[in-house]
Model the fold of this input.
Amino acid sequence: MKRGYNSLIIDLNDLCSLPFALLPLRSSGVQHHRRLSHALMKNFGRSFFLLGILKILGDGLAFGGPIFLNKLIIYMEESSGSEQKDRDLRRGLLLSSILI
Done:
């Protein structure tokens, strides 16, 4: 570094020789084909998969809300049925509304 700073490097022979491991012939055969997708999956894959599962659950609950509401309206219009079915429909609508 001092030789370069003091402008003592004039020719290629003034440079230091590279170690054997860094020679171009040695390092050209050791190339690994690494992919960006593999590196991203290795580093961030778990969190993306967990967020994907949460997204699927949220979308499913958002889809289920109107279905529960439709069933509840049909049940109320008929006004014949058990209280258990009424309770189940109200709970399903409540859960789909809260968990979205």
